[in-house]
## 1
Amino acid sequence: MEKIFVDLGKESYTIAIEPHSWSGFGKKIRALSRGDKAAVITDRTVDGLYGADLEQQLRAEGFQVRRLVMEPGEDHKNLDTFGKMVRACADFGMTRSDLVITLGGGVPGDLGGFAAASFLRGVDFIQVPTTLLAQIDSSVGGKVAVDLPEGKNLVGAFYQPKGVLMDPVLLRSLDRRYLHDGLAEVIKCAAFGDPDLFAALEDFSGDEDVLAHAAEISAACCRIKVKVVEEDERDVGARMVLNFGHTIGHAVERYYHYEKYTHGEGVAIGMVRLTRNTEKMGLTEPGTADRIRRLLQKYDIPTEDPISDEDVLAGITMDKKKRGNQITLVIVPAIGKRMLKKVDFADLRPYVKG
Ligand SMILES: NC(=O)c1ccc[n+]([C@@H]2O[C@H](COP(=O)([O-])OP(=O)(O)OC[C@H]3O[C@@H](n4cnc5c(N)ncnc54)[C@H](O)[C@@H]3O)[C@@H](O)[C@H]2O)c1
Ligand SMILES: O=C(O)C(=O)C[C@@H](O)[C@H](O)[C@H](O)COP(=O)(O)O
Ligand SMILES: [Zn+2]
């Protein structure tokens, strides 16, 4: 078992990564909560696969359980679903000593975490991530949110879970598209923070290799993420590096109403478009954009979209790295390196052009 401690003072917690640990999750959750009631926030697909089993495990530990099930997909990570979830928590009669468990990918994780942060002004929650993306990124670090038509994750909070429980074996039921979606964020992490992981992904023969090494991949990405979150929990500096590819990526996701691309696909398009431009500007070593593009394409992840420069710029106006009329861009000068650069919004076009 791999245990990674997230050192955030009173908000500290442990990420436990262990293949075949699923059947022990009920006991692990009981060790983290003395609550009477557990609300499991999940989506319909994940509920069908794992919901009843988790409920049984939790009941065996003495919890009263209610499964609160949303429709799957980014286009449901919104205020409407959030409203339904917090009302369902009220209907369940939860008190401040009770528990929310988010079971699923980043969508129920972000939305359920925000429900936990808001209901009664905060009840404990535990992340049980079941996608690669959620195991390597979204379940860690306490960013919880929902989307608005105006932009991604525009309503949310920083609210840390009490623990994160991962069983990489659960990834075996994922559709290929979502395995690849998570790989886009793995490639993001490797691009700015782990050249050895980047090279390993280049050497893998394909999906089977990724699944066979899922525990190591999650541990590598979580370690990188934990380090920056510990340094800058509130995203005012160092943490912004985790947003590589997201400035353009979020604009692309929003432009297509969160329906055309998964989050990882948007990030992939964003990483390649930005890095091609920073190469032309002499900020990135020649060949870097192509190396990122080739690795993404190896896993069938889209790297191009015809969205116009104007539409990208319009989508970036609500980016959370914007302060006044300046925005911080995350640039990869070479694989394994990172740079934050403040740019006037008026000078942004050459960085985002297609
Ligand atoms: N909070 C953060 O730090 C952070 C970081 C990265 C991404 N995110 C957010 O995460 C979201 C994307 O997460 P995602 O890619 O996990 O999407 P998701 O939650 O929509 O999951 C993708 C699909 O996989 C299905 N699924 C989940 N687990 C499964 C399993 N084990 N077997 C079979 N099917 C399964 C789901 O039903 C869904 O259809 C975005 O909203 C993004 O903004 C947040
Ligand atoms: O945890 C972070 O910080 C990240 O930026 C991780 C990203 O992969 C993730 O998509 C995050 O939700 C983006 O945050 P936002 O502040 O740009 O909405
Ligand atoms: Zn992301």
## 2
Amino acid sequence: MNAPHSPIHLQPASCAHVRAGTVAFEHLGKTYQASSGPVHALQDISLSIPAGSIFGIIGRSGAGKSSLLRTINRLERPSSGRVLVDGVDIASLNEDELVRLRRRVGMIFQHFNLLSAKTVYENVALPLRVAGASRVEIDRRVRDLLALVGLQDKANVRPARLSGGQKQRVGIARALATDPQILLCDEATSALDPETTQSILQLLRGINRRLGITIILITHEMSVIREIADQVLVLEQGRIAEFGEVWQVFGAPAHVATRALLAPLQHGLPDDLQGRLLPHPPAEGLAHRKILRLGYTGANALEPDIARIAQALPAGTRLVHGGVDRIQGHVHGRLLLSVAGTAPLPDFSLLTQGPQALAHSIEVIGHVLDLEHSL
Ligand SMILES: Nc1ncnc2c1ncn2[C@@H]1O[C@H](COP(=O)(O)OP(=O)(O)OP(=O)(O)O)[C@@H](O)[C@H]1O
């Protein structure tokens, strides 16, 4: 463990052989013995989390997210396979080594888990007292930490008088007290409103960038992953559904579980359009418009170029609906366009390949009767 009194703002990430803050799972399995029989919460999980990254874990309820997170500080023991922290199999640690591991792996929680009878100062000081730091060291470190999380003026306040966001800031300061290289976040923003969530995410990103701490977070809020994670793991029934860079997984989700989780983030069809969409062109003679969907998956820096799209498609092409997001600088999303039903369409394969591509995918998703020229 690093000395508890190291100045917070000057702590660089280590450059040892295995960089401090690395986590690896090797064929990890976890089975609980419940009264109804064995529950296979995790099965054959193998992957590494790079030091200094922000790693998100998502999945439906019961997919095994908490079980996986809790194996990293040995709150849960694997039933099979191994968990390596900085290259060391943590199953082999004795009691003293386990205490040291838990100082290197901080944790924050959805409901903050602060001691209500203690002040903010005392809550943050507690891990340092347990670690045997001197009063002078504790004082210096707690004041540094409270400054880091922006709560210098709340040192003597009890948690009940703090907002949710302030309580989580205390939780973060306490988790950082022992100078960890890894921070586990279990639904850390789920109890917060969107604005406060943003400020906590900014704080976590700042901690990751400035201190080089690996952050591993569970969340059911896909927007949180999109906002700050570098990589994401999707769990489904205790197994890896997929994992990779967030912009790739979110841009082109390969697994049905990922697509279901991401559905709220997608720009779906507006209800009125969905209700009018026909799978085939209407009978001859009826005016209609084709609905095209242009998809952007975040790959190769492709962005919607409105002028070139207009040039490539028939005159009178209209924008109906859609939008794009940016994830780590990569554009993903979709645009819905309508064109006259009789207008000839270009070869889409030429518009989705090579350096001149207009979109990653283009398809006709249906037809709409053009009764009132409304699309
Ligand atoms: N101590 C336990 N004893 C028995 N079964 C357990 C125990 N802890 C978890 N489980 C079961 O293991 C499976 C995975 O649970 P886990 O809490 O890891 O999932 P999760 O993805 O974090 O779910 P949630 O999003 O609902 O918190 C679930 O079926 C759960 O009921």
